[in-house]
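My current task is to audit a protein record that another person submitted. What it holds is a sequence and that sequence's fold in token form. Thanks in advance; the entry in question is below.
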Amino acid sequence: MRRRAVLAALAGATALALVAGWASSGRRADRDRPDPGRALPAPVAPAFTPGEPVALGAGRYVSRWAVVRRPAAAHAAPDPSAPVVTRLGLRTPEGTPNPVAVVARRTGADGRPWVRVRLAILPNGSEGWVRRTALGGYNAVRTRLDIDLRRLEATLTRRGRTVLRAPVAIGAPGWETPRGRFYVRNRLSRYRSPTYGPVAFGTSARSPAATDWPAGGYVGIHGTDRPDLVPGRVSHGCIRMRNPDIRALARLMPVGTPVVIG
């Protein structure tokens, strides 16, 4: 009899605990349930307001570029009614994404953000304005390649410090390598011809003397199967490097790097 009484007491206590738990859970649910009489906080309006376009940050040794995301006209001014300088496509002649070097930003005559970019057209040094929406996100590089036409030497710097220096061959008389400020558009490899070496970089520079060449005579930076001609003035405008040097450059120089030839 005593054992039965103990079991009955335990069962009663368990039932009371379950009831208390259900009641507590119900009270928590009531607390978590929204009160229909309580007003929700007013929404923030507007949720996001973009600021006015500003000049790109002038960080030391920083250059920016962006890929063309939709075909667009480059205008002489940040105004859709301004003369068209050229039209930008999605791909380079080599079939790679088409990057442009970004120089400045401004609000256009239409009230929208515009970007001034360097153009890979003749005359060399041409620039134009495109709507910001035509470009992808900005990419930043901290490298710069200088080609010294007098010393026949290439110097790559990163954050202002020299990381590579190598001899080069440049354009022969009548096929001079153009001077100016350009940028690296793409990186190519797996050439069937050993003439171009293991790696080549396409730039935005154009040869005024090779306009009838395939793709319009873009100036490249590439290797060679004639290292004995480097340094020298022997090419049709391209910049040749010995194969070990172009491989080293390929490890250090990203697309978008500014190229200064002078």
